[in-house]
Amino acid sequence: MGQGAPSGQLVLLRHGETQWSRDGRHTGATDVPLTPRGEQQAAGQAARLAAWSFGLVATSARTRARRTADLAGLTVPAVKERVVWDDLAEWDYGDYEGITTATIRETVPGWTVFSAPVPGGETTEQVGARADAVLTRLRSWLANADVALVGHGHMLRVLTARWLGLPPRAGAHLVLAAGAVSVLGHEHETPVVEALNLPAAGGKIRE
Hints:
By secondary structure, this protein is of the alpha/beta class. The chain contains seven helices and six strands, in the order βαααβαβααβαββ. α2 crosses α4 (63-71) and α6 (124-142) crosses α7.
């Protein structure tokens, strides 16, 4: 670890499966609960996450994220502090809430959330600004401890891109599976991805 690099690791946990995530429906503000399989995915990460001593756990306000954190054992007193941060909310999909990419492409060929407008929702740059705000808030924590973030696929993909110093749209080249753990850290002073998509115990990365 080079001088000036934070000593802590940043652990990302995407919430477990919901009916909408299973069906590929864009799920932003809609508070969809975990499926039974999603609960199993979250609980299956508890043993892995117990290896860390987290100074802070921050979750999205959505029930699916908070429930995932609970089942994964990321609760006080197992962790020193747990908070809810609005900036960890999933991408605001506006008019595309609840709609699949395949359906959107019937009228907007080639559409992806990273490369094309989201009517009534957020731009990639706006999501990137939220990710930057989260990372700025974490700096003082990571100087002394590990931190866990429990949130959503697209938002955490953008956050990972920004951790690496890449533009928000670079999140298109990452996939974070439901219920999977990823680890961000440093090699010397360089921000790196240390692990990506560690599945729940007994699970596959993507099925």
